[in-house]
Please model this.
Amino acid sequence: MPKRKAAIAVGGVAALGAAALLLPNANASQDKNQASSTTGTAKTLKATQASNLAAQLQKALGDAFAGSYFDSGRQQLVVNVVSGDNNVIQQAKKAGAVVRQVKNSTSDLKAAAGTLKTKATIPGTSWAVDPRTDKVLVTADSTVTGAKWDRLQSTVQSLGSGMATLKKSAGTFKTFVSGGDAIFAQTQQGGVRCSLGFNVTASDGSPAFLTAGHCGVAAKDWSDSQNGQPVATVDQAKFPGNDFSLVKYNDPSTQAPSEVNTGNGQTVQITQAADATVGETVFRMGSTTGLHDGQVTGLDATVNFASETVPGATDTVNGLIQTNVCAEAGDSGGSLFTQDGGAVGLTSGGSGDCTSGGETFFQPVTAALQATGATLGNAGNAGNGAGGQSGSADPSASAGDQQGAGGDQTGGSADPSASAGDQSGAGAGSADPSGSGSDQSGAGSANDGSSLTSTR
Model:
């Protein structure tokens, strides 16, 4: 096979509406003024900086640490503490965080989640810690009715007042694999379509990529074109429990750069793996719906999917990132990323669609890398450092002009003039976390004046 260049696969953006620009750092001066007037010593941070600071404070504060979240409006990290010890509070403030005293400790919240696992592992349910409310957020989809709903409601009530909240979702929790058109793998049941997440280097130095585990379990061989020959083979796949796959390119000379292709010949580098922080704005790229944005709403989420292979069984996945970013069938495995080029997650599943919205869940990239031994970047040019450079996208281009590749593709250089399903484009970019809305396409550097193009 000739030497080929593989780019991260993303969806061609097909949303309708006028293009709108999300200008980087549009509210920076306002946020700084708010920070100085309300918190004094709190630092103005980027989302990745907030994530790193949260990890440091979690270690430093020990049992006094009760979660944290990113206030994207003020660009500050808010840290929950359960100890009234002034030294603890001052330590967190000195580090640059806003400190909030809360009732429920991390161990209390984990114990509540453990009770839910024991008594309420019901298909169509999920739960995640929400540090903004200092409670466990429990969600039931539309299939949880009758005795199942009564059982879930009773379990939540048994946790005690102020420990958990229960809400209903209009959709149905499912993994976002689709069959039919634009298929890129074959199974005994027919075609399977997913989305490629991030190119990586496997522990043996070979080029590879990460995608969803349920995609890797469904099919072993993957093609970069409809009905094409396989160009990559699943090396590791974990689902349920976790939801990630490591897929190695068959040609060891494949160039698999740690970059994304946002269409029209523009690329953006992915330079680091980043842990998610509740409250931060994140962007998701997938083969079906293209680029959408939203906020992280919970961490360490547990989702109970109804099994698609064993009637009546439950596929439980733990440790996921919960968001309000929309997704649809075929987006599974697609990339979730931050404004500054941080690889955050791989699309797992959820409810709803990109018309009505819904809840979505993502496998953390950091956990997938640790489990597989892979690193971001290609051999000889691995990119795990901070502050990557990104190519500037054309902010005047419409959604139809910013087409990326059809998802679930592996390998092949992107042709910006091709339609979704004919290219392998890339799925991440820098964006301003203060920008609102979804259905976004195109990506640019967060600091170089270029922008994301949003179609609504």
